[in-house]
Amino acid sequence: MDSGTASTTPPTSRAPDGASGAVAKVGQSPPANPAAENPVTVATPPPAKRSLARRMMAIAALWIGVLLLGGGFALDRTLVRLVEDNFDEQLEYVQTALITSAEIDSFGDVQLYRSLGDQRFLEPNSGVYWQVTGEGHQPFPSRSLWDRNLKVQGDHFDNEPHFYDSDQFEDEPLRIVERTVILPDSDTRWTFAVASARDELDYQITRIRSILVWSFAALGLGLLTMAMLQSWYGLSPLRRVREAILAMRTHGTNRITAPLPLEVEPLVDEINALLAHTEQQAEEARMHAGNLAHALKTPLTVLTNAATAHDPRLSDLVCRETKTMQRHVEHHLARARAVGRRASGHARAEVWPSAESVLRAVTRIYEDTRFDLDGNRDAAVAMERQDLDEILGNLIENAAKYGGGSVFVTIDAERAAKDCTIWIEDDGMGIPESARAKIFDRGARLDTGKPGTGLGLAIVRDVVQIYGGSVDLDESEDLGGLLVRLTLPRSAP
After folding, report:
1. CA angle 117, 119, 125 (to 5 degrees)
2. What number does CATH give the domain 346-489?
3. How far apart are CA 284 and CA 339, in angstroms?
4. pLDDT of amino acid 345
């Protein structure tokens, strides 16, 4: 930057913390809002990169956690229920033996005609107890109760065992089963209760839950490790694709040929198709450059030779050869533009407005020619508007130039067809069938009496082929002259 430019923009210095960034000049008031006069643009940070492996691991960890928690809870409830049921069955077995051993003595009280086999019922505070209670009678306890009694519920009489937990003994939670029956030779409802401390039951439950926790923790760790290995191994084809692309960039290979899984093959096919498309575009660019260089070589040689020989017709030669070079440059630039626009893949042009604009321009040149436009006003083709204007302009201008005074343009003549067909007819002399194939060659002209370059139809053919269309010549049934049938790919609605 020169000094004059630098002097027009005074440098700004950063104000210290707590000081205003705007400095008021002498005799002037400071600005009301310094931030409004000097807006600060805050750069938006780029979005964080997301890892596919981390996403897969997060999903796997989530589902593993959910399944392990749900399965662990269900298994815990099942095992705990089985242990409790087994514990209750033992209590019920003792209760049944107690009932079958009971009888009524001569005083109407309950007594056992045989003792129970478990010696713990004879040991005080052993943790295993039984008791028989009847209305109007003293409780008949086991020796293990010693000086205590069981507080039974006794609010039911259905001859069925009832299980419940009780905290009536301090520091000794109990599991109790009771059953109310009527013994022979007695009208009293006797309640037979058998109780056992829950220490053993709680110990079994705690042990089962400890085993479950450690087992499920090891299972979860193993599943996460397997998920990590699966993610690493499953994403390895993508790493091979990256290595193949790196090899293409460093070693000059042009295709991915490594064997890959079926799930990755569509991606590889699209990459190879993109590479092929890029190569095709590069080859077309080289071809256009070579053709342009070859086309310009002859005019430049003529001009060089004329200048060296001091040809008196040098000015005429310069004008003529310059026009020739300009035509060649326009021709190849048109093709290059069409190739570049086709690569975008989102081109769309409405045919009717394009034809109207071309007809307005051509009417000013050929005022005596009658133009007729008909067809589908909503037709659209998959190409750029500029290219469509150039194609229609060349065809309509040729029809007006070589016709007899009438030009008919029909848009979308076959609406049911896959492609959009445009008919351009004139009432001229037409073109013989034998010469219709050569008329599209560069420089080909049948009527040399009228001005022209012979490149218009060549440009039309090249641009139409680039977009995947076609252009054919036929005889007009209505006007008797030439019929140009232009077929272009229809645009998606």
Report:
1. 135
2. 3.30.565.10
3. 8
4. 52
